[in-house]
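Thread title: Can someone regenerate the structure for this chain?

I was given the following input by a collaborator and told the matching structure tokens would be attached. They weren't. Posting the sequence so someone can regenerate them.
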Amino acid sequence: MIDHKMKSKTPTIEFTLFILIFLLGMLTRFYNLGAAPLSDAEADWALQALEVANPNLEILESQVGSQPAYVFLTAALFDLFGSNNFLARFWPSFAGVLLILLPILIRNKLGRITALILAFGLAIDPGLVTVSRQAGSPMMALSFGLLSLSLWYFEDSGFRAPILAGITFGLALLSGYEILIGASILLLTWYLYNFLKKRHFRNSEEKSGEPVDTIPKIQITLPQESFNQTVLLLAGLSILIVGTYFFQHPDGLANWFQMIPNYLSGWINPSGVKPIQLIAVLVLYQPLAIFLAMVGVTRWLIQHSLEEEIKPYLLTFPLLWVIISILLNLLYPSRQMSDLIWTLVPLLILAAYTLRLYLPQGKPNLISLLQGGLILVLSVLFWNTLIATSQIMTGSTLEAIGIRFGILIGILSLGGLTAVLVSLGWSWEISRNGLIYGITASLFIYGISSMWGAAQHRMNQPQEFWGRPPATGQSDLFLSTLKELSEWKTGFPQLIDAVSVADTPSIRWALRDYPNIHFASGLPTGTLPSVIITRMEQEAPALTTSYRGQDFVWWVNPGWIGSLPPSIVEWITFRKAPLLNEKLILWARSDLFPGMMTDTKLDTSNIP
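Best answer:
Regenerated them for you:
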């Protein structure tokens, strides 16, 4: 009896793996979260939260928008701990971590191994990780929306929890118009799935002349009325409490209803993100998921049937979800790159399902493993050759470039020849598995590299596509310079008097802790402030006589005209892409420096 109790308390391998995957997801989302400065798009939402937390700051001129979940939850953090970049991005990152719990909630539908693979994919996916590290509501809408559906409907998951379902449902609704995008995708997918299912079995009945009683469908048993009432009650309370910031901002609910006109206006106001960019981002950042999904769907179409232990909706429903989400994103004029996260989840479900099918049952075949290792070696050789090709693209003869590309084709051909020889010497199944193992390992390494680069090395930079340009450049250097000037002038790091003629959300966010900084539409007249901040194009000749100026790169925009950078090979290998930098100038009054004097009046006669 004692041994049985001890054994029941011992964590299972599955539980341990889920914990490790969850910790991995926390690492990828929270590590160095506050290192990169907020872009204008991020700072716009963060300033709204700061306005709620500290309405007395004169530097703020923000109003609560249609994303009260992000704004008010972030305001609560600012109220408790002060404002910084980490806390501005905390709730999206937290929601991204919670998304990893989705496979646990539906693992009885997916299967345990498929759920583990899916959880691992959600933890390290480049798109999901990158969007989770951006201030705003897209990830909160996706995570809270899918978690609420899972907690509400999937009875055999064993995790039906009306309180959690109601809270997550309420937070999902408060996440702005992004939840309307997701709801449109899921409703259309559900309708089309049931339509095709009924049509398929109607045709089967007509051909066989007998009724078909067994219809493969997602087994959903609607909760009891008391369960629904609890969910709706908790959702209503969440909306009422969070949506009004504990009844301190009733205008939050009024602004929340603006999400409907915001979503509808998106059908007539283009965002500037081109449809081809969405497809390119999927291919360039998700090659492993796309490869595995295509293998699984192709196998299904060729065989015209599935293994008995695999339920058909593991392919049909997520496949329809992928197709519909891509089509809606392509049709929606106000599309954003972050909308692709609604495509990534079903794509990863398809990939996890396929990988589960090809995992070795029992002892793996040595020949398949050796072939997979050879494919991995060839992939490394292919990558090194691609790097060399990108380095000689400019200033090289066509013959040299042709030789390099010939080598690339030769490496691919060698991989194909290896698969053919193994299939002739052993069997097609052994060759196929080895090929899948090798390609999966190679693309997995590429995916990890893409994730780490987008989330850490070039977080929110425009050459990574996932952010909303412009990105913010030398913010830290700008602030350190301003801090030194303030210490020279006042003896305190943030008390210098200044006027900023440049006014964008990212500038206001960066200067939020400086109480003596004011924003103006033009250069000041009369008494000279210690510091003046202007755009590069706003440089005035009068400032050069009384001030010393230093420029800083502040806005970083894509510098290419088309949908993709001009050299896609250089972008793939080194993320090299032309960027367009816009600068600020920090003008410090000359008398702040030792041995320098200046007049206390500014001659504005020659200011245009």
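Residues 360-464 form one domain.
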